[in-house]
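Inverse folding, one chain.
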C-alpha cells in the first residue's frame, strides 16, 4: 500500500462523533512535570483543553498523530472553554511554567475563539513566568499573537511542530501540510512579536532507517537553531489509529532506540547554537515508545532528562549497556537490509 493511500485508510473515521455538553465542560488532562526556566529547575503546570482539535487531522493528518481521539468533534463554545479553565485553575498552585495544549492549534479560532484565548492567557498573568502553547505556523500572526502578548506580561513561548527541515520527509513521510520554510518563517514572525519560538523535531518518522533518522534530526537541529529559542527532540511513540501504528502492527516500524536519542542529543548539542536543546520522551522504555533492551532504559531516560534540564550533554557519553552493540549493528546493517 502506498504511503498516500495508507494515510487515507488509517485517517478514515478517526474523528469522534460530536460530544455532548458534559464532555465539553471537562478538560482532557492536567498534571505537573519537571521543567527548567533559565538555569533553574521548576515545576510546570500542564493542561490539555478539549477543543474541536486540529483541522489538518480532518483533512489528512500526520502519520504519527493520534490526538484526534481527545477532541470534541465540534467547536467548544466560549462557555464550555471557560468551564474547563475554571476547573483547571482550581488545581493550579502558582507553578511558574504553564503549558497549554489543545490537541491542535491554540491560535486556530475554530478551536479556541479569540476572546476565550485572551481570557485563558490572562488567567495566568502575574502568576506564571512563562506560558507555552502550540500552533500550526499559518495561525502565528500579529492578529492572533498581539492580544495575547498584551494580556500576558511574562514570556510567551509558542511551539511549532516542525518535525523535520527536510521537505520530503516532512511532506511525504510525516504528512504535514506546510513546508519547513513556513515553520521557519513563522518562528521569525513570532520573534518579531516578542514571543519565544520553540520547535518540536520528530526522531524517526516512518520509512527512515535508524541511522537516517538520527542524521535527519541532527540536520534539522542545525537548520532550525538560528530561528528557535528552544528545540525539543520528540522520539516517535505509537499512538492509536495512526499510520505509524499500522506499520508497527505489520512489523514494519520499530520506535527509535534510546541510543539513537542519546546520539541525536550529543550531535545536536554541537550544532544547536544558542538555542536550548531538550528531550522528554513520551512512553520511554515501553514497547510502543523509544526503548533499548529493558535493562538500561530507566537509567538512560534519567540521564536524558538531566541533560535536558541542565543543558549538560557531556554525562551522556558515560552511559553503557551491552545492548549498545546491537544498536550499533542495527544502524550499520539496516541500510543493507540485514537484521542485526
Ligand atoms: S501532529 Fe499536529 S498538525 Fe499533525 S495532525 Fe497532529 S495536531 Fe495536527
Ligand atoms: Zn540496554
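Residues assigned per position:
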Amino acid at each position: 500500500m502506498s504511503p498516500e493511500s495508507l494515510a487515507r485508510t488509517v485517517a478514515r473515521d478517526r474523528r469522534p462523533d460530536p460530544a455532548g455538553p458534559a464532555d465539553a465542560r471537562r478538560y482532557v488532562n492536567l498534571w505537573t512535570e519537571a521543567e527548567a526556566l533559565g538555569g533553574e529547575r521548576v515545576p510546570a503546570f500542564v493542561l490539555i483543553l478539549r477543543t474541536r482539535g486540529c483541522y489538518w487531522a480532518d483533512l489528512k493528518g500526520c502519520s504519527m498523530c493520534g490526538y484526534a481521539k481527545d477532541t470534541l468533534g465540534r467547536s467548544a463554545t466560549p462557555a464550555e472553554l471557560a468551564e474547563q479553565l475554571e476547573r483547571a485553575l482550581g488545581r493550579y498552585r502558582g507553578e511558574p511554567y504553564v503549558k497549554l495544549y489543545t490537541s491542535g492549534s491554540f491560535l486556530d479560532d475554530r478551536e479556541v475563539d479569540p476572546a476565550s484565548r485572551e481570557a485563558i492567557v490572562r488567567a495566568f498573568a502575574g502568576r506564571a513566568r512563562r506560558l507555552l502553547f502550540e500552533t500550526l505556523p499559518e495561525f502565528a500572526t500579529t492578529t492572533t499573537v498581539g492580544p495575547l502578548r498584551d494580556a500576558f506580561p511574562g514570556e510567551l513561548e509558542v511551539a511549532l511542530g516542525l518535525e523535520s527541515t527536510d521537505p520530503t520527509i516532512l511532506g511525504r513521510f510525516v504528512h504535514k501540510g506546510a513546508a519547513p520554510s513556513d515553520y521557519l518563517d513563522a518562528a521569525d514572525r513570532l520573534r518579531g512579536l516578542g514571543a519565544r519560538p520553540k520547535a518540536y523535531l520528530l526522531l524517526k518518522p516512518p520509512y527512515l532507517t535508524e541511522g537516517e533518522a538520527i542524521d535527519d534530526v541532527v540536520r534539522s537541529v542545525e537548520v532550525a537553531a538560528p530561528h528557535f529559542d528552544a528545540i525539543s527532540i520528540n522520539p516517535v511513540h505509537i499512538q492509536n489509529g495512526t499510520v505509524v501504528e499500522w506499520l508497527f502492527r505489520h512489523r514494519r516500524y520499530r520506535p527509535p532506540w534510546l541510543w539513537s536519542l542519546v546520539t541525536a542529543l550529543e550531535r545536536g548539542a554541537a550544532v544547536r547554537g544558542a538555542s536550548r536543546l531538550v528531550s522528554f520522551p513520551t512512553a520511554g522504555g515501553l514497547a510502543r515508545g523509544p526503548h533499548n533492551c529493558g535493562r538500561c532504559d530507566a537509567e538512560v531516560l534519567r540521564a536524558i532528562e538531566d541533560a535536558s534540564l541542565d543543558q549538560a550533554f557531556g554525562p551522556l557519553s558515560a552511559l553503557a549497556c551491552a545492548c549498545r552493540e546491537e544498536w550499533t549493528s542495527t544502524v550499520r546493517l539496516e541500510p543493507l537490509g540485514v537484521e542485526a
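Strands lie at 29-37, 40-48, 97-101, 130-134, 155-163, 196-203, 230-235, 276-278. The first helix runs from residue 3 to 11.
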